[in-house]
Amino acid sequence: MSDFLFICDSIQPTLKKVKLDLFNSFEDETTSAITRKQDPSFIPFLSLRQKFGVHQKGGFYPLPKKYASLLDLCNKIEMNYLRNQCQIQFTVQNNFTDIIQVLQLLNLDPKLYKLKVIQDGIVIQHPSQINSNKSDNKIIVKSSQEIAQLSDLINKRIQSLREKLDQLVQIKHKQYLSTINCEDFEQFGSQFKIYHNDFDLNDCPDIRPVKLKKTIFTKEQIQLHLDMLNFMAEHYDKRGVSFMFYDHIVTILSVHFNKVKSEIERALKNIMNLIPDKIQILMNHINKQRWMIQLDRASLTQLNKQCILNSFLCN
Asked: Which of 126, 186, 220, 245 lies in disulfide reach of 81, CB 3.0 to 4.6 Å?
């Protein structure tokens, strides 16, 4: 009987470790950390519930926010064409970052859309669009069968883009596993569509926009965004903080650059949309005065600033 109890006691910790290995999203971080220290062979499990809010749909890996925003924009353009079957116009005034992100999408797939540069923006033409010589605002009526076929085609286009974004992350993830001598994790992670727990999705390369034949962004617009980013990085560094109240930093920027707050807020939103892995706004409160702007000061080196510079100079 004592031998049986000894065997049970020796098996129990192993069972607990397996549970943490596969389901640590239901365990607290302290318990999980202790387990990792006790067992050197423990493989960190990326908890999608903790790290990304919800599990990814469609059996895909998680994406960094800068890639997810590109996928979201593509999905909006495709759904808009499915409903209206007409061209889409983006203006610099209203769609500053959308234009840059479309150019990033064309870097991933040059045949994704056909662009026409206009005075204050771009016109996007879907490759499935027919009768392009007709008025841009004219809606082409299709049969239910044609709409169903178009819907299937659009879903395949979105899925194809998603796979290309996943491939970029997986290449970076494979390099990371090689660096930490943990190549065996790749096969394990593929079963659950996860990445190594210590792998930072934000380390994935930024997608450089393609260049337009005609300039649509003014030098003043470009310079304002760059100067705002540099000023904020220096302002946060001087105070040694990573968080500041939204209203406070908007007021400081407005005074420093002698711009109205609405213009500052619009430019600030553009910057956050372009580099969401470097700067983000925390709006977890109904009162706008309680909003916070988080800035990743450590990542905003001169090299990273050059990345955003390329994004604005893509035209």
From this structure: 126
- pLDDT at position 279 is 86
Ramachandran region of residue 206, left (φ > 0), alpha (ψ -120 to 50) or beta? beta
Q: Could you tell me the residue range of the domain that residue 20 belongs to?
A: 2-42
Q: What is the pLDDT of residue 312?
A: 56
Look at the chain and report how many structural domains it folds into. Answer: 3
B/e letters for 219-232, b = 16+ CB within 10 Å, e = fewer, are eebbebbbebbeeb
pTM, whole model, 2 decimals? 0.75
- Looking at residues 157-163, what average pLDDT do you find? 93
Q: Do residue 195 and residue 226 come from a single domain?
A: no
Q: What is the CATH number of the domain that holds 262?
A: 1.10.10.1420
